[in-house]
Each structure stands twice: as structure tokens, then as C-alpha cells.
Description:
Elements lengths: L5 H25 L9 E3 L1 H9 L28 E3 L14 H35 L2
Helix pairs in contact: 1-2, 1-3
Amino acid sequence: MSLFDKTAQALQTSLNMRQIKQTVTSSNIANAETPGYHAQKMDFEEALSRSLDIDGLRSMSANHGDHFSVGGKTARVRPEIYDNPEGAVNNDGNTVDLEKEMSALSENAIMYKAALQLINKKMAALKYAASEGR
């Protein structure tokens, strides 16, 4: 039995994916003036879904004592990062839309903080439950 349930694992994975998204978006912003740079994109929801295996399609279980458990390792899944096909090409070949990237950066920061607050509340609840057992 794990101290941290699936929700806590999902929140942790969400934070990891949001950090990657922050890096990708920041890189796009930093290269907004670079001729020929193609903006990168990461599909957060798809990456998180794959990592958590929400639909259970890729889940495997150990049904014999000699088998190894292979599930629950969300840190190994890496999101696919690719050239943004929606980017309009500027005169210099750059595809970064600075306004969209800044908006995405702000949204990602807000969602990161929200997930962090949820983790903090979950930890506070565990701490409260542990201290009430004295």
C-alpha cells in the first residue's frame, strides 16, 4: 500500500509535465527573434494521459509471485516535443507567435501553482491525520 494515492501521483506527474512545457515555451520566447527558428510544441493533456495511462490500455499487472510489477513509474514517460504545425512563417522563416507564447507561459504558470497548492493541501491533510492519531 502506498502513502500517496493516484491523485498525488497525478499531481506530481502534472508538475513534471508543466516544467517541461515551461521550458519549451520559454525556449520559443527566447528564440522569437532568431531567423529560421521553428516554434516547438508539447501536447500537455496527451502527455499527461500517456504518463498516467488514464484509460488503462497500457497497464500491466503482476499476477504471479515471480512476476515483476511494471506499473506506476510515471517519471519514465517523456512527452513528444515537435515543431508547431500551426505556426505562421514570418519573412525570416521564424514561426514563433510571441503573444500566443506569452499567453501559454502565463497559463502554464497558473496551472503549475494550482497543482502545487493541491499537493500542499494533500500533504497538510496527511499531516493532520497523522498528528490526530496520537
